[in-house]
Design brief:
rod-shaped, alpha+beta, binds 3,4-dihydroxyphenylalanine, 7-stranded mixed beta sheet, disordered C terminus, 11 helices, 348 residues, 42% helix
Length: 348
Amino acid sequence: MKEKITEIKNQLQTKISQVKTLNELNDVRIEFLGKKGSITELSNYMREIPVEEKKEFGSLLNTIKNEANEILNAKKEELENIELQKKLNYETIDVTLPGTKLSVGGTHPLTKVIDEIEELFVSMGYDVVEGPEIEQDLYNFEKLNLPKGHPARDAQDSFYITDEMLLRSQTSPVQARTMDANLEKTPIRVICPGKVYRRDDDDATHSHQFTQIEGLVVDKDISLADLKGTLEILAKKLFGEEREIRFRPSFFPFTEPSIEVDVSCFKCGGVGCPICKETGWIEILGSGMVHPNVLRGCGYDPEIYTGFAFGIGPERVAMLKYGIGDIRSFYTNDLRFLSDFNRVEGGE
Ligand code: DAH
């Protein structure tokens, strides 16, 4: 019997030495220690063994079972280590390989200008409000002192949808909407950014769709000095601390007096250069004191309340600030323009 056991042990050693995978190892385990395995079947001899030898045989049987288990487990560990090593080698990270470049978007130049203006006015206590892009003639024109047939309507050739509805040609209707909604609650301090539409032929300086930011302040005792102070802060914020502004008389139906505002040229400092067309000044926005008719039409008594308003074009500001030559570049989503701009500006 001892020979038999030794033989089985030798067989096991030989088989084990040939095993290359965990699956093969499992087959060997079944072959020797499975239900019908050759070691398991040794127990069947127990019956034939004389009583006095049973103890020794039993102990031999246990020993070989334990030994077989040890051998199999050791092999299992060895194979698992080999697998792990293979996996580690395979998964090694080559830190010298060039990385995958993730292209990150940047802030659109127009958004940058709008954000900058919003931030400034919010810091001065203004609210940011919005109005509809499909607007009533009532708000786009009539409540702004531009009754039907008024010649100044022609300056803003508009996209009408019906007789009474149009794509707003300016953000000024948000002034009237804000006053209507507040009904003599003051102070009103708002800025209204948004898209506007005009029947213009697109070229380097015109676009049928562009953006404006409207500003409106209504309260008791608001004067031209408040408007001037506010716009000076705006000009300095947009074009640099040394900037000065100047007022020129103008005409807008919804303001009286109406004023066009120039900023001293940020390029030449006022001496004269191609950017300011040798004048030293650059026109940046339209403004004025809210016309009594507008206040009255929106439920504010002009004897008690006064206000100022202004309208600025973010495209013009961005073109000046960043030296952009064609207004169409803002809308065509040409990545060369956008990433170029972000590279110059540092992007975000
Ligand atoms: N709405 C005017 C335009 O589109 C711009 C403007 C001028 C707005 C004077 C104002 C203002 O609020 O006071 O041409």
